Amino acid sequence: xxxxxxxxxxxxxxxxxxxSGSQGQFPLTQNVTVVEGxxxxxxxxxxxxxxxxxxxxxxxxxxxxxxxxxxLRDNRIELVRASWHELSISVSDVSLSDExxxxxxxxxxxxxTSKAFLTVLGVPEKPQITGFTxxxxxxxxxxxxxxxxxxxxxxxxxxxxxxKEVKDVKYVKEEDSARKTFTVSSTLDFLADRSDDGAxxxxxxxxxxxxxxxxxxxxxxxxxxxxxxKIISSNSWPEEGQSIILTCxxxxxxxxxxxxxxxxxxxxPDPERMVVNGxxxxxxxxxxxxxxxxxxxxxxxxxxxxxxYVLIVHDVFNTLLPTTVIPSLTTATVTxxxxxxxxxxxxxxATSIRDPNALAGQTGPDxxxxxxxxxxxxxxxxCSIILLGRYLARHKGxxxxxxxKGAEDAPDADTAIINAEGSQVNAEExxxxxx
Length: 435
Ligand SMILES: *[C@@H]1O[C@H](CO)[C@@H](O)[C@H](O)[C@H]1NC(C)=O
Ligand SMILES: *[C@@H]1O[C@H](CO)[C@@H](O)[C@H](O)[C@H]1NC(C)=O
Ligand SMILES: *[C@@H]1O[C@H](CO)[C@@H](O)[C@H](O)[C@H]1NC(C)=O
Ligand SMILES: *[C@@H]1O[C@H](CO)[C@@H](O)[C@H](O)[C@H]1NC(C)=O
Ligand SMILES: *[C@@H]1O[C@H](CO)[C@@H](O)[C@H](O)[C@H]1NC(C)=O
Ligand SMILES: *[C@@H]1O[C@H](CO)[C@@H](O)[C@H](O)[C@H]1NC(C)=O
Description:
This protein is α+β, with helices and mostly antiparallel strands. It has helices spanning 2-13, 320-323, 326-341, 345-354, 356-361, 364-409, 413-434; strands spanning 27-28, 32-35, 40-46, 54-57, 63-66, 69-70, 77-82, 86-91, 100-106, 112-121, 128-130, 136-137, 141-151, 156-161, 164-166, 170-176, 181-191, 200-206, 215-220, 223-233, 244-253, 259-263, 274-277, 280-283, 292-300, 303-311. The chain is built from seven helices and 26 strands.
């Protein structure tokens, strides 16, 4: 029973048993792929062999080996192993012309054969980038072509700019009819931009023969462009007496050096306070007369560019309110009271406000007390002066009125004198009354 099943099983494994009766007697081969210049092993196996000869022949039907006997004079072809079960040969330094169908024959009656296809891969040459010029002006068109020959099958070319793949490229492949290899090229077409300056452009060739190590050609782009300029200020709210540092940042290719600083279209007016050191303009002890437009100009062989900074020197006064403390507010109230009584004190108020540090240096309550006392004293003094003045004015006014009364009523000078004399008596009477 066991042998019955064994026979059934083996007949299942070999669905086409040879009709001659020699069971399992047929050659087995495999296709081989080899890189140009490499070595190809051609192996032919026979599971069961009753001492029947094996033979390898090339695509041109020439016999290479008959059992262990060499038939074709070719140093590249060698015997690896020869037995009743196997005939293996190797072909070294394989060339593209070695490609084709090789045949292993088992000399039974009739002869049984097995075909092995030898594929030879053409290795792409190191890629070359053409059309590269350096430097290139910004805005110019660049057409870089990467080319590689000798690949079989045709190699794949990809472009990268700083490791980022550029997809929109033109790919061309041409077959070299004699060698059956391909020359492939790819063109990268773009307008030079300043952002590409310093970028690494690489052309990468991938091919199955390269064993996943691509061939790469690289170029570093050099794009020339007009300067870009920017002014950076150290002080966003410049005030009188402070200083400011203006830095002119310029970028360009070639590097613009040095930069030119001007004010309102002319030279810097005060070289003692306005010092230029390289790209930096420093202005010390700012003054309102420094107001104006400061321009920084950068120039390189491609062109020039400039930018402006409008300087407004602010009054120190403007910063008082946010920085004043409570004692100063008390001072302000007191000075306002003084201002109500005497107009001449207003100027003093203004000056005292302009000098907040001096006020802040004193102790607040003391100052308020002194101010209050001074105000009261001044007020009382002024009231006394005003009262005294009014008394005097009223007295003198009465006297004059009396004198005038007499003169007005008189028709002529003599009468006037008489009347005046009379009125003088009245005045004397009134004077006495008043005293
Ligand atoms: C071919 O056979 C030789 C001998 O067995 C072996 O050294 C070599 O590695 C083989 N080459 C390939 C490509 O299999
Ligand atoms: C095959 O050859 C060997 C010697 O090489 C011999 O001993 C053997 O009997 C032969 N087998 C057959 C089936 O002819
Ligand atoms: C071997 O290569 C030939 C030709 O390329 C092909 O037709 C065949 O199917 C291949 N055989 C195997 C087992 O890969
Ligand atoms: C000049 O500089 C500005 C700002 O840096 C820039 O926007 C402009 O494109 C530049 N002009 C030229 C002609 O390069
Ligand atoms: C500003 O400049 C003017 C004229 O040069 C001068 O009279 C004035 O004192 C200066 N002011 C300051 C705060 O330096
Ligand atoms: C400078 O600018 C400030 C703020 O605009 C202004 O108050 C001042 O009058 C200006 N001075 C001059 C000399 O232009």
